[in-house]
Amino acid sequence: MKSFSKGYLKNTLSLLKMSIPVILRYFEIISRKFSQCNGPECFCV
């Protein structure tokens, strides 16, 4: 059981490492979209 949880933790950490750049890029795109337009029409995209 202990070895299973250790492997699970390692897999989760590697998944996080892979997903962090994707999440950062996603936030970058969203923030750019909001900075380009400032008005109520921005929220209707």
Describe this structure in words.
This protein is 78% helix and 0% strand. It contains one helix and no strands. By secondary structure, it is an all-alpha fold. It is rod-shaped and about 55 Å long. The chain has one domain (2-44). The longest helix has 35 residues, at 2-36. It has one helix at 2-36.
Task: Provide the helix percentage.
Answer: over 70%
Beta-strand fraction estimate = under 5%
Number of DSSP strand runs: 0
Order of SSEs = H
- Poorly predicted residue ranges: none
SS field, number of helical segments: 1
How many structurally independent domains? 1
Q: SS-based structural class? A: mainly alpha
Mean pLDDT: 81
**What is the CA-CA span between the terminal residues?**
48 Å
Structural Rg: 18 Å
Largest sheet: none
Shape designation: rod-shaped
Provide the fold topology.
Elements (H helix, E strand, L loop, with lengths): L1 H35 L9
